[in-house]
Amino acid sequence: MKTGGPNRVGSGAQPCWVGASGPPLGRDFFEREAVACARELVGAVFRRGDCAGIVVETEAYSEHGDEACHTFFRPSARRFVEEHDAGAAYVYFNYGMYWLTNVLIKNPRTGERGFVLLRALEPVAGLDLMRRRRGRENPRDLCSGPGKLSMAFGLDGADHGKSFVASAEHGFFPSPETSRLEVVADRRVGISRSRNHAWRFLAAGNPHVSVKFGRVK
DNA sequence: AAGAAGATCAAT
DNA sequence: TTGATCTTCTTG
């Protein structure tokens, strides 16, 4: 599919964007377990402004039984979980250089809470804007990592605390890819604690992931 | 006040 | 493999 801009298609109350096949994911999608949300977000379309991409890699972090989750060692993260609703953007600055983007997950029935880290997207709209923001040409260099995709989509501290439940500004949409893609689970990337959990989810064989399946040390 | 660690990236 | 770069949290 050739993409020049954010071609709005379809009609009616719910707009559909490039690659989207239905209404945006609502709050209830994020009111479940983080691991299930992370797995099922692979294949969805994320849109923000004129940019959009298919989610091809995510990671789940859980408040309980997971020492890699920020809530385990950051009081500010625990406060964030208390003060925000499911679907809120948790955007933080890492290594003094990059913003990383998460979605807050809260299950009101079980009380389980956690995050889904967006690790890689396959760009489908707004590529020229992404190229300008990233200073790179190759589509594979635009969103193939959590720092890269945040930069490509212009996500930063100003988005921290905003809701990712669909708005005029941004949202997640189901896409035909959701059912077409094969999703595989692997160990998470770049962490030192709780590395045993297979909570990284990838679109099998997709060239836009940050680290290929099986390549985590 | 100072130090260490950290969910990364790009160049060498 | 290494350097860049800085916020959050802990310790003294």
CATH topology: 3-methyladenine DNA Glycosylase, Chain A
Q: What value does the average pLDDT take?
A: 92
At CATH level 2, the architecture is Roll
In total, the number of strands is 8
Helix content: 10-25%
Number of helices: 6
Q: In CATH's first tier, which class applies?
A: Alpha Beta
Number of domains: 1
Kindly summarize this structure in a few lines:
The protein has about 220 residues and is α+β, with helices and mostly antiparallel strands. It contains six helices and eight strands. The chain has one domain (about 25-205): 3-methyladenine DNA Glycosylase, Chain A.
What are the key terms here?
disordered N terminus; DNA-binding; 217 residues; 6 helices; 8-stranded antiparallel beta sheet; alpha+beta; 3-methyladenine DNA Glycosylase, Chain A; 8 strands
Walk me through this protein's architecture.
- By secondary structure, the chain is α+β, with helices and mostly antiparallel strands.
- It has a single domain, classed as Methylpurine-DNA glycosylase (MPG) (3-methyladenine DNA Glycosylase, Chain A).
- Helix content is 18%, strand content 26%.
- Strands 1, 2, 3, 4, 5, 6, 7 and 8 form an eight-stranded antiparallel sheet that branches.
- The longest helix is centred in the middle third of the chain and has 9 residues, at 75-83.
- Residues 1-15 have low confidence and may be disordered.
- It binds a DNA duplex (12 and 12 nucleotides) through strand 3, strand 4, strand 5 and helix 5.
